[in-house]
Amino acid sequence: MSTEYGNIPEETIDAVLTQHDIVETVGRHVHLTKQGKYMKGLCPFHSEKTPSFTVTPDRQIFYCYGCGMGGNAIKFRMEIEGLSFPEAVKIMAEEAHIPFQSTSGKPESPQDRETGRLLQAYEWSEKFYHFLLKNTEHGRPALEYLRGRGIGDKMIDQFGIGFAPDRWDTLVQFLDKRSFDLTEMEKGGLISAKQNGEGYVDRFRGRIMFPIANRSGKTIAFAGRILGEGHPKYVNSPESRLFNKSRVLYNFGQARSAIRKQRQAVLFEGYGDVIAAWEAGVHNGVATMGTSLTEQHAAMIKTTADEVLVCYDGDNAGQNAALKSIPILEQAGLQVKIAMLPPGVDPDDYIRSNGGDRFIRQVVEDAASTTKFRLANLRRGHRLTEESGRVDYARAALPVIAALTSPTEREVYLRELSSEVDVSFDSLKQDCNLIRQEQNRPAPGQGDPGPVYSDSKQGGRGGQYGGRGRDRGDYANKGGYGKKGNFGGGGGNYGNAEEDFFPQERRARPNRDLLPAYQTAERRLLFLMLQDRQASDYVEQRLGNEFNLPEHAAISAYLYAFYAQDREPDSSRFISSLQDEKLEKAVSAIAMMEGPREWNEQVLDDCIREVRKVPQLRGIERKREDMMRAEKDGDFLLAAQIASEIIALERQ
């Protein structure tokens, strides 16, 4: 049976997931180590020092216990490269030589329709701003300013540069006349709501507009530069459904083919640098947008390049930013070189003063290694004409050289250092070797960390895991599910039932708050339903979508529909059918849970009973509140009547 997701045939999505193994896909961006049947690594979507990012090869999904990001191989590519679902599937299909053809047999989802409207609005807004710059009196001062900066009409057209007049509602009127929903446009970052909440105003006014495109070349945001002096100099579109500045690089869409061909990207700080370099013949240039380089930026570059040339401004801020970029790029598996610009000069200024040919020869082609750059940066802070300055520089430079793994490289830099500081090569080499020994010595306590968890006998009172008063029922004592006591009895809490059923989650998040019993029961039901179609059928007949958490109810409904299409249990493919980020994360977390996959009717009935208790308990709580109000009002007859109703409900 054939179905479609977002107008992409199910067969195409299945083929993409089959051809793109989750471990291989994630492994291009994350260093993974095997831990049992899992692969663990540092999450690329948030900063962390202890790995909480987990890949499960047998289920073909990933999940981060730190930030909650999860999904299959398609979802990973979407997040790491800033792609939409269709874009990710198309790129992955092309990489695996799978025929890709979108069809129009099924209506788009509401999210896809909203995304399509926003993309259309941004495209029209870009053309509107561009027209205003080149063809109106409003744009004349901006046009003269750009030409004075060396940006001629050819580059203005190439990069779609425009101008937003210094008026309150120019774009608002333009969009409104074309029947765009202004509330939707405000959510998408094109316009702003008035402070009194009545109507909308232009977000950008009196600014030169630089369109920002995604990797497919579609405009998804703007950067507005103030005309003349003022603060802030640049204003970006706010983050939206389309735009996340930590995952978007300026000009990546245009530069991608050149980057792929040369296997190198040139990384700039500003829009003007990229444009000036393009006119000079450097077509593989990209830039961050008023934000520091992120792991996502580096991962995005890694998809098409092996090497990055960092070409930041020659001032202290630019050089410090270049230093900070090196470990991020290297961690992504990229070779790194640094352009050595004169102090205080940015690439745009250099090109306008010296010409494009000289920029390519002396800046791009003569880029320095990261070690040479680090040493040059250190050298700036020391006076080598003074003995104390040479000694201090040598002390600062030796750890940089000692960190090199190649003996040949170390010798080359030590000989250069020897000449610079007038100290013998042998003395420097001896000091370098001592530093290497110190660098490679294990830190205290890192020799053998031993087992993460102590023996069960050391767990403390109340059970194997040390939780006092936990009631795990027959599961803890007999290694299976009993008829009673599975959930801690009597309408109370699971205790730490979820952690005991699913030790993987306990190890990953030992300090997290315990879930209420009904939530854990719902998660357990969904976990078993994901593994077994018969379990899903059983739950559908007896519980339907009467889950207490809305997201669990939604997941169950999607799962019933998934199996109704004669699909076999497959967490990865089920996630692709959702196309809802919140639900994708929830399913990924549930699918990653550990515990027996076997089930029987008693197990499911116990869970269902726990889920159904919640409305009853809430009803009892509401009646208690009614009883207290009746007593407060002096209506003791009504209070007694309600009390008898509460007793009857509790007996049920």
From TrEMBL:
<protein>
    <submittedName>
        <fullName>DNA primase</fullName>
    </submittedName>
</protein>
